[in-house]
Design goal:
The chain has one domain: 2,3-Dihydroxybiphenyl 1,2-Dioxygenase, domain 1 (Roll). It contains two helices and four strands; from the N terminus they run βαβββα. It has helices at residues 15-25, 63-68; strands at residues 7-12, 29-35, 41-46, 54-59. Strands 1-4-3-2 form a four-stranded mixed β-sheet. Strand 2 (29-35) and strand 3 form a beta hairpin.
Length: 75
Amino acid sequence: MIKKLVQTTVYVHNLKEAKDFYVNTLGFVVRAEEQFESGWDYLAISPDNHNETVIELAKASTPEQEKLIGKQVED
């Protein structure tokens, strides 16, 4: 049984839409956000600024990652 989660990555189709959903719908806060010259974006969110749990949202960039979208937290 998982008792604690500190950091995990969730693959998404669209990083901008995912950020909007997590922040504006679920009330999460952006902990870190950075754009790199290579075209890679880093976005880390958390339930609040005092919570140690961090979710890294990442745009799926391979067929394997695409298959994981929506299935990363299932039984």
